[in-house]
Amino acid sequence: NQHIVKASLPTSHSYISPKDRTDANFVIQFECKMTFSLHFFFMVLSTTIPGNGTMDYTPFLSVAPAMEFRNWLGGEEKINDYCHDLALKGGKRLAEILGTRVMDPDGELTFNMVNVELPFPGSVKPTAEIDHQIKEKLLRKYKAFSAYFYHNGRWWTRASAQVWNELDDFEKVGKIWLSVCAELKEELGVKE
Is 24 helix (H, G, I), strand (E, B) or coil? Predict the structure, then answer.
């Protein structure tokens, strides 16, 4: 049913169907133009107020089929067991590929996401430019993504295990992160 979905949750009540759009500007297109009149001491106040709501009911209509799909997979407990096991195994495999470690080696605090250290120097502090370079490489060059962050003097990636993921996905993102980190270190002229 993905061909039916035209917006993500929550959809603004000011959503305009692509066929009805008259303005290419994203901000103007989604600006909610609501006029309120406030009669107070015979004064009228009219204003434009941004808001959130929905006119596209597709996301709401997809809830029942989504729940049916999750039941078809075996239910919530089976889904969570699979995702938890995959996060533990995937994190371990990702750390092996990267030559680093998982943040929670015992898996005691890991549910369905795992944090793995990146092979990138902690001496390189996060900046808007570094963030931009990482995103450009991950998204544009390699067409992949896993969240990343700087914590306690080290760079980390957070990989989320979902029902559609397999261990192979962790291996793929690990190889991509190896390339991204190597390229960035070379471009920045840093070693470590």
Answer: coil
Instruction: Tell me the per-residue pLDDT of 148-170, one tens digit each, with 9 for 90 and over.
Output: 999 999 999 999 999 999 999 99
Backbone torsions φ then ψ of 78, nearest 5 degrees = -65, -40
- Cβ contacts of 121 within 8 Å, gap of 6 or more: 155, 185, 190, 191, 192
pTM of this prediction?
0.70
Cβ-in-10-Å burial (0-12, 13-18, 19+) of 67 comes to exposed
Contact 116, 96 (CB under 8 A): no
User: Which residue from 164, 173, 188 is spatially nearest to 83, judged by alpha carbons?
Assistant: 164
Asked whether 115 and 150 are in contact (CB, 8 A), the reply is: no
Instruction: Output the six-digit token pair for 80.
Output: 């969570």
